[in-house]
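anyone seen this seq b4? input:
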Amino acid sequence: MLRSEEASTKVPGFPLDLAVASTQGTVGYLLEAALRESFRAAGEEGGIATVLSLVGVNPDDDAFRKPTKPIGPYYTRYRASRLRRERGWTLVEDAGRGFRQVVPSPYPQTVANLDVLTQLLKTIPVVIAGGGGGVPVIMEEDGSIRGVEAVIDKDHTAALLGQHLGARLLVFLTQTACVYEHFGSPNQERISHLYLREAEQSLELGAFPPGSMGPKIAAACAFVRATGGEALITSVECLTDALAGKNGTRISP
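predicted toks r here
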C-alpha cells in the first residue's frame, strides 16, 4: 500500500485484494526459497508448494459496516479528504500522526481451494498457504467470485485451514517464546498451559489485547473447540523445545 501511494501519480493504485495476492506471492516465494535451502543443507528431500489462497467471507459480516483494521501509510488532512471523496475510503485520525485508512476485517468462512491443498498434502511434505489471511473474496451463489476491500486475520485463517485439513496440532509462531500473563510489566509470568475454558474466560476478561496476543488466543480456541486437538504458541527459535513440551504455551481441550 505504501508503494501504491508513492506511485499514485504514475500508475493506478492496487485494490486491496490484489495487494494481498501480490504479498502472498512475494512472501510465499521467500519462505519457499528459504525452506528449500534449509532442506538442501540438511540433506533432506521432498517437495514444497506455495499456493495462492482465496478465502471466502460473508458479505453480511458486521466488519463491512464497521471497518476497524488500519492499513497503509499516514495521510495529511488534505490527502485524506481527497481519498474519501475519490475512492470512498474510510480514514481515521491516528494519535496526531495523520489519517490512516481503516478496512473491514471479516471472519474467514471457507478456502476456495481446500481440495487442492488436501491432494497436495498427500504427496508433498510442505505446503505454504493462507498467506496474509488469504485473498478476501465473496463467493456468489452462481459459483463466481469477486474480490473485496478487506484484510482477513491470518491467525483465524490458519485455524480454519487446520480444522478442514485434519490437523492435530496447530502452531502459531510469534516473537515471544510463550504467552505471558501481565505481559510487559515487572510482574509478568509465563503461561505454559491453558485449558480451553481458561483461555476463553481470559479472553472475555480482556487479559489478551486485540492488538497483541488476542487474535492468536482466539484462533487457537476456535481450532481446539472445533477439532479436539491442541494449539501451541511459541517462537521460531523455541519451536523444537516447545514441540517437546519444554517451552511455549499449549492450549488443550
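DSSP finds eight helices and 15 strands in the chain. The CA atoms of residues 78 and 224 lie 47 Å apart. kinda curious what u guys think
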